[in-house]
Give the backbone structure.
Amino acid sequence: MSGIWNWQTITATLFYISIVTPLYSVGLTLPTLINGFGKFSRPEVQLLTVPVYVVACVWVLVSSILADKMQKRCLFLIIDQVLCVIGFIINISPAPYQAKYFGLFLVAMGAYAALPTVVAWLSVNLRGQTKRAVGVSFEIGIGNFGGLIASNIYRNAQGGRYFTGHGVNLGLLGMGIPMALFYAWRLNKKNKEREEWTRQQMALPDHERKVFTIEELHNLGDEAPEFRYTI
């Protein structure tokens, strides 16, 4: 149960929902959203979905490689969430359809790139195979209720503005961004506490230093004093 009932898993699940709902919103309703512009035939609508996914795919690859190389998950998650926010604001506004189409690119880029970042971020910060497996499974299992949300918030009666759908997604992102920042802040705080503890231990004579057995370190998992969280 430690994989579920810990602050990391609960916090990560909250910002997972905030990003998976926009992802399902794009995946399930992109043709409907484009059709809401009222400018294109059905074949044209289907063709116009292709560039959105192509650009999103490129951004997923680029941002994932950079996040791995820089080991900065929070930075890229916030960038992706902000892209989604901007895209939804454009689409809920009375902007021309060209701007709204561009906004859909931003939403797709942010949502599809943020998903692997969110999963990887929690996974790398949960130590112990069982704890990691349970925690990530809980995050994905509960977080995917976002698909249920996304499938029920876009109403044809609202026309091209889709106030309910875009509004719900903006509300969830308004929750997810502070949760991601809180997660990063708490990880950084814990890393600093462990650095300070290590400095204090190194200042002590050898016989006074706390020495952990391999079994103790294994049981402590990511709470072990030598473990450093990825931010």
